[in-house]
Design brief:
three-stranded antiparallel sheet; two-stranded antiparallel sheet; mainly alpha; globular; 303 residues
Length: 303
Amino acid sequence: MKLLLTSISFFILNITVQGQTYQERFNAVFFNDTVDVENVVPILRAWEAAQPKNAEMFIAHSNYYFTIAQEEQMQLTTEPPSQGEQAFEITDDEGNVEGYLRSVLGYNDSLSSIAIGYLNQALEHHPRRLDIWFGKCYTLREIGEYEDHVETLKAVLALNEEDPDSWLWANGEAFDQSRYDFYTSIHEYCSALATSDAPMNLIIDAIETSITYFPEGTELINDLGVAYFYAGDNTSAIDAFKRALATNEEDMTCISNIAYIYLIEGNLEESRSYYELLLKSDNADDVAVAEEQLTYIQNLESE
């Protein structure tokens, strides 16, 4: 099943200007190695004057301001660079590493706000455009507005619950459920949030809210367990993994997660029982992990 896009797409309008649509003129100057600010802005202004409520016009404005809002920022951390990442070492007089200076992508607050503003205008006039709702979710997460991101995700879930059959997609076309999977996209947004630097309480809130709408969503419940684990709440993590396992008894990821948490908590009996279940997996890697951990448990018990 093809996933819903996590960014806003651009579409051709039926408006023509000197033989070209506004969208064609915009694409010609926007999709280059560098944004041609001098030529983009007049096109956007003319487009907005001609079609002040057009959804694709709002999308183009938002993408433009989102793009020019990006700026390089220098970040000082104590975390060593990952493989392939470039960073300057900061050392003391004796050569001891005290930190790392790296370049990261940031966003100008004022320009980002303008980008979000155009998406809000689009949704005011086109509240059933699911692609714009998801575009707003994506933009908010990218600029680090995690609380607004979660609230927007909740709004999408509520609207879908009220009327799942009247969503529109790109260029105002009817949302094709046979091509896109709403649940999978919600899960992807929750997973992306979980791997961001968002506060853990917001990550858990987003996943728990999504589960209320998709109580049989094994992937979401499993994600909730992972979130609780990283929050240091092993009891809630195990409960979540067992809930996920109840919806899919053959979910080896849940089985492995439960076995591991019991192991690090020292509950060898429970850990062994779940690793024995993992031995039944069709995946050779799962079986290898189970065998290794069962041997480790046996050695602990014999000490």
